[in-house]
Design brief:
The complex is a heterodimer of chains A (116) and B (112). Chain A has 116 residues and is mainly β. Chain A has no helices and 10 strands. In chain B, a hairpin with a 2-residue loop joins strand 6 and strand 7. Classes of the chains: A mainly beta (116), B mainly beta (112).
Chain lengths: 116, 112
Amino acid sequence: GAGVSQSPSNKVTEKGKDVELRCDPISGHTALYWYRQSLGQGLEFLIYFQGNSAPDKSGLPSDRFSAERTGGSVSTLTIQRTQQEDSAVYLCASSSRQVLYNSPLHFGNGTRLTVT
Amino acid sequence: KQEVTQIPAALSVPEGENLVLNCSFTDSAIYNLQWFRQDPGKGLTSLLLIQSSQREQTSGRLNASLDKSSGRSTLYIAASQPGDSATYLCAVGADSWGKLQFGAGTQVVVTP
């Protein structure tokens, strides 16, 4: 079956513009995670969704960042009024529900965001 | 706060040598530890997941050990090949929902 799909693969935007990043998890995976990978910062947790539960937004760096997950499947990460420090690779991952903490995460290839 | 450290940051070995990658973490109250591989421009591929109650996991040429009490995990790759060249990341499971805390990674180059 298909893996985690992210689009676009690359996005260049001007400072101050809004961007939307999309993630299609593996079919049947109820847990979905967003991470950010920056040079010198490593992988940073942003947000995760699990079924119909309230998402854990504890990793979002500012109120310019938001995410939603519609119908328990596709997720969109939105960054408003982008800043140069938002430039990074945004990675999405999903995991099966059975025993979440013992299920490996499956990552997409990421969206490379460049803010000019 | 959980801190995950990987040493060395980079490693170069000739083909055929065994690879030893180290990961340490400061809080032993973890749910699991996972090792990932990342190729340039790609996402992460899960290699091994060790549950908190386990001491090791094996898959082919890969073996990972976990010592929670000392806050350490080691990934061994036997008989390295040029195709093993990649960045290897370890991550500890911080909560029951699968949220991970990552190390910075070890960049590995295996020369033919």
